[in-house]
TrEMBL record, chain A:
Its main location: cytoplasm. UreD, UreF and UreG form a complex that acts as a GTP-hydrolysis-dependent molecular chaperone, activating the urease apoprotein by helping to assemble the nickel containing metallocenter of UreC. The UreE protein probably delivers the nickel. GO terms for molecular function: nickel cation binding. Residues 266-283 have a biased composition (Basic and acidic residues). It is found in: Cytoplasm. Required for maturation of urease via the functional incorporation of the urease nickel metallocenter. One of its GO terms (cellular component) is cytoplasm. Signal peptide: none annotated. This is Urease accessory protein UreD. Belongs to the UreD family. Keywords: Chaperone, Cytoplasm, Nickel insertion. It comes from Pontibacter indicus. Residues 266-335 are annotated as: Disordered.
TrEMBL record, chain B:
It comes from Pontibacter indicus. This is Urease accessory protein UreF. It is found in: Cytoplasm. UreD, UreF and UreG form a complex that acts as a GTP-hydrolysis-dependent molecular chaperone, activating the urease apoprotein by helping to assemble the nickel containing metallocenter of UreC. The UreE protein probably delivers the nickel. The keyword Calcium does not apply. HAMAP family: UreF. The gene is ureF. Gene3D superfamilies: Urease accessory protein UreF. Required for maturation of urease via the functional incorporation of the urease nickel metallocenter. Signal peptide: none annotated. Its main location: cytoplasm. GO terms for cellular component: cytoplasm. GO terms for molecular function: nickel cation binding.
Amino acid sequence: MHSTIKVNAEREGPLTLLKESSHNAPYKVIHYGSRHLHEHLELIMMSASPGIMDGDEIDIEVNVHENAQLKLFTQSFNRLHPMEKGAVQRTNVLVKKGGIYKFIPHPITPFANSIFRTVNEIQLDETANLIWGDIIASGRVHSGESFQFSRLHSITKVYSGKKLVLYDNQLLEPGRQPFDSILFYERYTHQATLMYVSPYAAELKAELDEILTTQYEEFTFGFTQCAPNAVMIRAMGNEGVMLYDWLSAMGQLCWEFTVHKQEEEQAKLDAEQTTEPKAEEKTAPVAEKQTKQKTAKRAKKEATAKSTAKKAKAIPVQPVGEELEEELAEAVAEK
Amino acid sequence: MQPLLTLLQINDSMFPIGSFTHSYGLESYVSQGIVHDTPSAKVYANNMLRHSIYYNDAAFLQKAWALLEEKKSVREFQKLDELITALKAPAEIRDASKKLAIRFLKLTQELHPIKRCSNYLAKIQEGKLHGHYAVAFAMYAHGSGITLKDALLAFYYNTLNGIVTNCAKLVPIGQGDAQKILFDLQATIKQLVDEQESMDEEMVGLCCIGQEIRCMQHEKQYSRLYIS
């Protein structure tokens, strides 16, 4: 069965709205809770089918337009049923200038003999922000079905300003790899990855260096600056729900951080525009009051945030507002 | 220039490019007690060759070689360089590849300059390319009249030599046991080299999840001897 899901998130004033979205059976994309609850957009992807069946083809397209903010949720674990031919999912994401897109789906659970190929192509503007997660279980672990699937290939390519910045190539083929061995899952049954691609990534990494100082008993994790503008967290554990909750909390932290940073920059821009530029200020000369000028300036500002972020890495304590510090602490405590 | 002698020299573990300062995650495995004796060191070495090196550095070497054979444009090398950079997620592993590439290129240029290598080094130093050791090695070996098969055999051998030497120092395992692992995996290396060229495009850069996590954890390891 061939299904398509299309989502367009557009910014109108302070709000992000859902425009020109479409989906067909068994999928449905609806507002997650009341649409009036947030200024950003929250959607949930639902399915009337018990999972992905043999021969299924799913095409997902998500467009996050300029400065739009979208969180896309899933309803439940993505179950891959026993197959002969296999199923394919293709996802294309586009995040434009200043946009934020967060997608951390529930774990993929591959049943015995399932064959699945998922390809994610993500195009980001250099000022766009991506919070992207994926969790793969070894199977229906509690039913004693672990690594009984045939093949699971997950390819994720992230481009920032047309340049390939991240390429995650995960092939899980129980006949090919020794999963219970060194280099692979060791004694674990689940793997999780979170990518944060953003002009603020280096600054977030410095925050994580302060926050994620000890390992947990239930799972093992590592994090790294995987590109100048990207941070990656990877984990292995035995509980899908626990990894999902933790990854969601970390994703929420990335979201709050991004929004806070953007607001900070916007406030600075607004202040610059209302006050006369002083001679000693090193900022570029303020041009005529044109509305278009604002967006151009913002883009420039965001581009330079990259170099600022690089420098910031050397500073041990980040100048972050108390409010955000509290939010970060809460997000971690929620775990 | 003698191809075999050149290969022996540039591939020597004592070739001073700093490869002995990297453990590529092994130090984490040892400190966490996962690699703790000769049998587990052998499993680690075997898995590294078959599941990490084969799909990554050796595959990058082979891809660079193919571009050299086909006399591809600079743009194609830039794409390969970007691909490798995007695949090497753990920062220490990415940096290791760059540092080794720079030192390898600088040193080999003093021995016998090869134009492509000097161009690659210049691009890395200008910040236009990231720089990766496997590509640098392929360029110099190709320019020195070495065959792809020999270059690959030597590359696997030296990678494995680095692994067993690190195991001997870190785990530790006996020098004799280390040499036994090196010898016993000859057939594996031969098989991987024979299959290298037929690798499907989508298999290049396959990730070993546990290995990546351990490499990331190394950044936070309290006491450490190695850079990666």
